Here is the input.
Amino acid sequence: NSESRAGQSLNGRWNAIIDPYENGYYDYRYEPLRNGYFKNAKPATKSDLVEYDFDAAAVLHVPGDWNTQRENLFFYEGTVWYKKSFDYALAHNRRLFLHFGGANYDAKTYLNGDKLGEHRGGFTPFEYEITQRVKPDGNFIVVKVDNRRLREGVPTVNTDWWNYGGLTREVRLIDVPETFIRDYSIALSKGSLSELELSVKLDGHAQKQRLRFEIQETGLTKQFSTNDTGYASLRIAASGLELWSPEHPKLYRIRIMSETDTISDEMGFRQIETRKSEVLLNGKPVFLRGISIHEEAPLRSGRATGIEDSRTLLQWAKELGCNYVRLAHYPHNETMAREAERLGLMVWAEIPVYWTILWDNPDTYANAEQQLCDMISRDKNRASIIIWSVANETPRSDARLAFLNKLITQARHMDQTRLISAATELTQTGDKILLDDPLCASLDVIGANEYIGWYSGKPEDCRKKAWSTNFDKPLVISEFGASAVIGRHGAPDERWTEEYQANVYTEQLGMLRKITFLRGMSPWILVDFRSPRRPLAGVQDYYNRKGLISNTGERKEAFYILQRFYDEMQSMHDTRFDH
Ligand code: GCU
Here is the structure.
């Protein structure tokens, strides 16, 4: 909950040196490191040789990818060195942290020439304590960001989205008391609608403290104490809470007060579970009327940043008639889960274990697990998130199954209150489609992508498909879709026209509505998005055109087909379940 903390934003103009040859990291010709850009060196005399100068270098805006800030960085994959100077008068007995919402892909951070640490993974937050290092004035941060794709990376070298590099999320200083509330989680106890489970972790010297938890609106207060490791975990009777749902996204302001710190947050309370092939929200069956979304800024393209982009994307999903969104294929910025909670949208959140990951590389697993832990740790208090997904379209193998099952065990260990899923592999034999991926045995909700009518067969083939499953579990079709160029019209069998895309949606929806164990879908995708794998000039121009809305914000015909379908679903569901 970094945004509720005191401190100072470091967003804005950073100086940046583009360094394709890693020149700034070491200089093999001179010892000691003369060139280390992280020193932000200046010539001491007029005859000194220093071959870089941040203050004379161009500026990049933070947060933001570098690709869409400069024409000559559009395809750039390599290192950019960022520098920001700041002053900060840290009060006595306070502690200061340098917090990054995210940086893609590998970030090495320095303060006043000293290395603070390294972080890998483009979509999860990280921070460093700088209490002992910060000076009242004249500090400088240098961050080396390298977005080169790595075979052993997570994701690996091949993805169908743009490899936006840089300090793509907010950077800020967080100022907290010497002993502060470092972490807390609050949720309805599993299976209960009238009991909360609260855990708190203090960080600092005064570990054993008396604390108070309160929900002002209901008058609920609870006194409790932390043990000598600064930890407390307790259950609190909480009857009469208005439950969070898409139709009624009720948020409560909570406060946790220790003897030395106070933190407040806003969150909803709800239960999500499955029973056989049903998904139950607060004990009632629900159908997940969704859409997939990439973290791409609407209209301007580039990495989405900040609350306006989140609100625009999620409002478009609401206009489509959604009660649910799939945030593909990696943890989105923190505002997405918060805005979804405010607007009333359930969320499928995902780590980028995507396609051909190096399954038998222990370091790749450690990377994936770290990203999973950071995603869960960051968003565990968001009622909007109902599903953690550990993978997308990963080819079946024993190594892949072991890797993913280990991730699932870790996710369940961290969070017993949410559902686990993944976009699994279907078996198609002629017109028979079978859910038989062994991974499904470990999932609560089975996700599956299929592109009948676009990548395989014709749209009308949908009419002949017979679906069956080896598992008595809910199915969510996590992707189907087709591409169309906005404003291009023709016959329904003419590829790239809006009519073709609309026809695929009509045929797909006709097929999907007949699947008795289907409990949701998140068609691919809300908005056209950039991809290096989509070069077709005059049609794709490095955009994946499966959006229901173009990158210029215009709705395609298929938008209205899905909107009508969800409208019918909602009225049918209301009659079927909400009587
Ligand atoms: C795959 C993949 C998506 C990709 C989509 C497509 O299912 O999960 O990331 O963009 O297909 O090919 O458009």
Remarks:
- Residues 160, 329, 392-393, 449, 479, 524, 544, 546 surround alpha-D-glucopyranuronic acid (CB under 6 Å).
- The mean pLDDT is 96.
